[in-house]
């Protein structure tokens, strides 16, 4: 997890670095330990107000694909800079006509140990056809929690931000702490070797 201040700095860097006019609006910049995801709004296709739903859906598909191909080189340049600066992969997405689409993004493996009652939940999902494997079933469970506990997760993230702020004001804090690459997306690997110069 990164703090609200770090999220703001990350969003600010992308807002300043993205080419003018790439997006109508930068909607969201999120990050975890592996990946930064940048999502922006793009113009909707120009269609008559009474266009059939099938035509509208096909037009949105076409616009999202067109944007992806047309902006690929510009986005790759920004992504390479961000990956060097923040030591994370960069993924992209767009919102168009109320639809959000993510381009290729990171699927990171997560290992866990489960006891029998928990394994039985996964096996039930497999037997019921909701998942193909235990790892697929576990991903299904995470998506279900994300969809149904969004407000609770937001409150939890906000409380973690508050914990970080309180810790930063504590009596034992260092005057100029070294950045932690796992927590600090502002670290620049080109200028921060991680070694103490002794100066």
Summarize it.
The chain contains six helices and four strands.
Outline the fold blueprint.
Elements: H1 4-17, E1 25-31, E2 35-41, H2 53-70, H3 72-86, E3 89-96, E4 99-102, H4 116-127, H5 134-148, H6 150-168
Parallel strand pairs: 2-3
Antiparallel strand pairs: 1-2, 3-4
Helix pairs in contact: 4-5
Order of helices and strands: HEEHHEEHHH
Helix content: 40-55%
The total of beta strands comes to 4
- In angstroms, what is the radius of gyration? 21 Å
Mean pLDDT equals 84
> How many DSSP helices?
6
Low-confidence stretches: 185-199
Placed side by side, the strands forming the largest sheet appear as: 1-2-3-4
The rough form would be described as globular
The largest sheet, given as strand count, sense and whether it forms a barrel, is: 4 strands, mixed
Distance between the termini: 32 Å
Oligomer: single chain
Structural class: alpha+beta
Q: Give the percentage of residues in beta strands.
A: 5-15%
Give your account of this protein's structure.
The chain is α+β, with helices and mostly antiparallel strands and 199 residues long. Helices cover 47% and strands 13% of the residues. The two termini are 32 Å apart. The relative contact order is 0.13. Mean pLDDT is 84; it is low at 185-199.
């Amino acid at each position: 997890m990164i703090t609200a201040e770090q999220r703001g700095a990350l969003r600010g860097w992308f807002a300043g670095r993205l080419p003018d006019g790439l997006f109508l609006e930068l909607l969201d910049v999120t990050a975890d330990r592996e990946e930064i995801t940048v999502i922006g709004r793009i113009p909707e296709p120009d269609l008559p107000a009474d266009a059939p739903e099938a035509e509208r859906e096909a037009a949105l598909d076409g616009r999202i694909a067109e944007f992806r191909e047309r902006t690929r080189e510009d986005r790759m340049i920004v992504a390479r800079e961000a990956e060097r600066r923040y030591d994370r992969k960069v993924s992209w997405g767009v919102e168009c006509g109320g639809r959000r689409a993510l381009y290729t993004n990171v699927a990171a493996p997560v290992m866990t140990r489960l006891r029998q009652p928990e394994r039985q939940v996964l096996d039930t999902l497999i037997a019921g056809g909701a998942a193909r494997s235990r790892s697929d079933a576990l991903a299904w469970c995470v998506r279900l929690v994300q969809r149904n506990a969004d407000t609770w997760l937001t409150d939890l993230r906000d409380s973690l931000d508050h914990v970080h702020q309180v810790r930063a004001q504590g009596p034992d804090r260092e005057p100029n702490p070294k950045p932690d690459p796992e927590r600090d997306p502002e670290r620049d690997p080109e200028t921060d070797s991680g070694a103490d110069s002794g100066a």
